[in-house]
Amino acid sequence: MKQQNVDDDLNNSLHLGTSYPIEEVEDFLVDIDEIKDSLKLTSSLNYQGVEIQFPYGKAYPCQEHLMEEIIQALIARENCLLESPAGTGKTATLLCSALAWQQHEKANLELECSPPKKSKTSVNQNGESSQVPLIFYATRTLKHIDQIVDQLKHSSYTDTPMAILTSMVNSCKNEFNDYQCEDADSDEHFCQYNPENLKWCQHLRGQKDQTWKISDLKDFCEKSNKNNHFQTCPYFELLDAVKNARIIFCTYSYLLKANMREALDLHLNNNIVIFDEGHNVENVCYQISSTPEDFLTYTNLTNFTSILESDLNSSTVSVSLEKKEPLRVVVETLKNFRNFLLALSCIFSEPVEIFFQDFLNWFASTGFGPSNLSKLRKSYNILNNCPYPIETNGRRGKVSREVLRFVGDLLGVLEFLWEGDTYSRNESEFKIFLTSALPEVNLQILCMNPGVAFQQMNVARSVIITSGTLSPMKSLSTQLGIPFHRQRSECHIVETSRLFAKLINKYDGRSNHPLELTFSYKENSMEWMSIQRQLGKIITDICRTVPKGVIVFVSPQTNVSKMIDTWKKNGCWKAIKENKKIKVERKGMTSTEVKELLDGYRESALNGGAILFAYMRGKFSETIDLKDVHSRALVTIGIPFLPKEDLFIENKIKYQDRRFNSNRESGLLDGNQWWTINALKALNQAIGRNIGHKYNWGAIFMLDCKWNEISKREMLPKWIRVTLRNSGEKDEAVPWKKMLPNLAEHVAQFEK
């Protein structure tokens, strides 16, 4: 069974995945402009005595606002939500303000402690740690970490000791094929190294510029291993770098999973936690505290138990005495759980809910109950301990990594489930279901409250979440379960005259059917055909009016192939094709296919013109910047609501309704509000793809008659609401034909 990576495809849906942190490493998804040389045009800003050195001359007003908000939050030990559109320099703002405050705090502590105290655990007279707070900077992918390090390199804070956390698979290039076994997993790692040969921190010590990337560390280790005839390992070098780091970069899982923090000795108390691209955090919390579909199945438990039993008894796998008993404990527990599922095998057409107390009793009988969990965790940690010595006879000294990932993910979910002494709170926060499709039986544990996972962050000095799309912030603050006293949303740095945006409810005043894009109409019905004809004519007009690249994002529920078939029949497809080269995203595309499609689209957009049809909640709506000629117009068709019949969505809506009805004065969302906001956040992420810098220009059109509702318009980000108001007298939805002349005038300003 292939386990889903929590840091991959986070925005595709809320279908839940496991959390083993093999981070996304593709480098083609973001269209990156080289970071401009600062040319020493630094500026200095001072907020409440904290002096910030900013690397790019005068900061934009939105950057100044965010820096002031961050400094105030750090001083007051408060959490904050900060929204600023793509291209407004959030990364430089975050880094410079947080590191400036850290330096300021370090200087104050050194003045208070003369001579300076070396102990990292000393406390002041208020009982608080006097250690200078560390900064944990979490983001979605390794590629984004590289971009952040690039920003740090161009700042005045390059002398800050840093570290990057990533998996052994992504960091170590050492290969010792002579020791590999035929039964090894594809990602098993056989690295011999001498702990005394760790040289990276020594190499960096004393250098003014201490910024680095994983690729730099790999190159250093490769050269050292070749030239100096000693073995060192990039993975253990980066773990060594963590010990003296003042800022640590990682993906979300390293902070949100308690067992990973414990394994790496990471402590959040009194430290600063930053979640960049934080619109993904809620989804990650659901994922790491729930089991995905087809995870806890009889087949998986049978296969994994068989593998571990083989490892325990096989002559080809060397298991030390230290690991024999932990392995036996894990094997017996998995066997008990397997037999438990087998006993539940029956035929039922609908998911069956398991009551919490019954589930508690059943799991206790298998050995996965709360009283046995610490023993299981200890056994797992021993088995998962690194490094793994290879004996001289060539036998491998470790058990299957695939099985260990399975056990680790299950333990992670159960630790959230059994948290606390009474588990009374957990009964309302989790739902447990049995589903059956013979001969398979599947047990799903679904966490309804992302705060179950995120509340661990509340021990930090300050938690800062930033993104281009956090609106409406009320949703995120109530879902994550910790207070965010500071919330700020900024406008775009692009002049409003360079952006043109409109909400479209139908083609023209004569159209009998508004653009009702829930697709509830029966295909080929009169209503459905009318809507498809209107959509085709709007896209045709855009292709004729707007030069170069056009991006069209559709709802995941849209049947694009049938939409295209209809356009082919009514002539719209031919008209579009006469003006633009057409590219279409397919669901389930591989990374290689996505890269080829993106490269082809960009080339066609630059040389004549192209249109790309892509999905909201897909790869192209997250992390890919399509700006300038690649996207002179961006269109959204529909609003990407998740299907209410989905097991998680159905129960999440009911959960929110119960919470709302139990305390209507708390500011909590009801189920329909949560469902709507979730969809609009996905749409907001898509509309931020095409305006990436101050001198860009373009147009944004959102097609759906639901934009007639004021409540939905108010959930759009501040910058798009301002743009809508400045693109006409009102921000309400209008017929397409009414505003087409205005679009032509807007394009004419810049295409002379």
TrEMBL record:
Matching PANTHER family: DNA REPAIR DEAD HELICASE RAD3/XP-D SUBFAMILY MEMBER, REGULATOR OF TELOMERE ELONGATION HELICASE 1
Gene Ontology terms for molecular function: 4 iron, 4 sulfur cluster binding; ATP binding; DNA binding; DNA helicase activity; hydrolase activity, acting on acid anhydrides, in phosphorus-containing anhydrides; metal ion binding
Protein's UniProt keywords contain Hydrolase: yes
One GO process term, biological-process aspect: DNA repair
Protein name: Helicase ATP-binding domain-containing protein
Domain Helicase ATP-binding as annotated: residue spans: 49-328
InterPro entries: ATP-dep_Helicase_C, DinG/Rad3-like, Helic_SF1/SF2_ATP-bd_DinG/Rad3, Helicase-like_DEXD_c2, RAD3-like_helicase_DEAD
Pfam families to which the protein is assigned, alphabetical: DEAD_2, Helicase_C_2
Alphabetical keyword list: 4Fe-4S, ATP-binding, DNA damage, DNA repair, DNA-binding, Helicase, Hydrolase, Iron, Iron-sulfur, Isomerase, Metal-binding, Nucleotide-binding
TM helices/strands, residue ranges: none
